[in-house]
Design a protein that fits this description.
Structural class: alpha/beta
Bound molecules: phosphoenolpyruvate, manganese (II) ion
Shape: elongated
Distance between the termini: 40 Å
Strand content: 15-25%
Number of strands: 14
Strand order of the largest sheet: 7-8-9-10-11-12-13-14
Length: 338
């Protein structure tokens, strides 16, 4: 449930309500708007009573929250959240572009790509060091060595950095080198990993599972937030459907639905959703047009020889052209870019 306080409720009234909640073994979550404060309640609701709460001073109304996710719920936190990643911020009024190779291959490759994507307007460098590949015989990533190259590239260019993690050991290594961790589609419901990510102290990009509903995805976010980490960003990367013309089907309606249900920033990945570089620009523009807070785009210096996901990677020229073309879309939706 949420307890909506009257406009300009006294601090002492807010405190009295939170004390009642916590005395009964539940957790309270405060969201202070310009005038109205909302107190979200997490825990076993049978231990408190709405009849008791409604008579507290300055309580306006009590609203049940029927969804299983609470901390990720917009009812708990009506204002859009922005998430700080290194020296940049994701949401709510700007467009953040994360770009880079699918996999970190060599230090030189990463530096070349980092410089190129930065000059085209990206603020976060992506690069996989632990690659959850469909085949065990495909390139699996450079692991900690790759993370080290990410740190060097971030330091030399000023870009913030993000890397996927696939295990607790990978999280322990990543916190030493990068600014944000990514939970990939294949691990979206790896609840142990989600809890570890929640304890990592780093912002988390949570990709949508290949077959996950929006509710399942928001519950996965709840796992991270409930461990004390509010810095979660959601990434729509396409879902599995009967359509085979694209690698996955980009579900852009998810962006609109999420904007209604959650306060968390939402970004779109037109690379993994389409699997083909030529579809990336139109889908990137569509992502901005429907309200995404950012984009994750794979860029490679030599896509034909990439160790992973070459067919969906943009060349530097194509990426630069795309970021220029995104500007008018940002203007239309009132987002700043650069
Ligand atoms: C990735 O971003 O490198 C990746 C593997 O994406 P996904 O988890 O969406 O497949
Ligand atoms: Mn990839």
């Amino acid at each position: 449930m949420i307890i909506v306080m009257k406009p300009n409720a006294a601090e002492s009234s807010i405190l009295a309500v939170t004390q009642y909640i916590e005395k009964n073994g539940l957790k309270s979550h405060l969201s202070k708007g310009e005038e109205v404060t909302i107190i979200g309640v997490v825990g076993d609701k049978s231990r408190i009573s709405s009849e008791n709460l409604i008579v507290y001073k300055d309580v306006d109304r009590i609203v049940p929250v029927t969804e299983s996710y609470k901390l990720a719920n917009k009812k708990f936190h009506p204002e859009a959240t922005s998430v700080k990643v290194g020296n940049t911020v994701i949401g709510p009024d700007n467009l953040t572009i994360m770009a880079g190779p699918c996999a970190v291959e060599t230090e030189e490759q990463l530096m070349t790509i980092a410089r190129a994507v930065k000059s085209s307007g990206a603020t976060i460098l992506r690069g996989g060091a632990y690659k959850p590949r469909t085949s065990p015989y495909s390139f699996q990533g450079l692991e900690e060595e790759g993370l080290r190259y990410m740190r060097t590239a971030g330091q030399e260019t000023g870009l913030s950095t993000i890397c996927e993690v696939v295990s607790q050991e990978a999280i322990e290594a990543a916190v030493k080198y990068v600014d944000m961790i990514q939970i990939g589609a294949r691990n979206m419901q790896n609840f142990i990993l989600l809890k570890e990510a929640g304890r990592s102290g780093l912002p988390v990009l949570l990709k949508r599972g290949l077959c996950a509903t929006i509710d399942e995805w928001l519950n996965a976010a709840e796992y991270i937030i409930s461990e004390g980490n509010p810095d979660v960003v959601l990434c729509e990367r396409g879902i599995r459907t009967y359509e085979t013309s694209t690698r996955n089907t980009l579900d852009l309606s998810a962006v609109a639905v999420l904007k209604e249900r959650t306060h968390l920033p939402v970004i779109v990945d037109p690379s993994h959703s389409t699997g083909a570089y030529k579809y990336v620009p139109p889908m990137a523009k569509a992502g901005v047009a429907c309200g995404a807070d950012g984009l994750m785009i794979e860029v490679h210096n030599d896509p034909a020889h990439a160790l992973s996901d070459g067919p969906q990677s943009l060349t530097f020229e194509k990426f630069d052209k795309l970021t220029k073309e995104l500007k008018p879309f940002c203007d239309v939706v009132g987002r700043s870019f650069e």
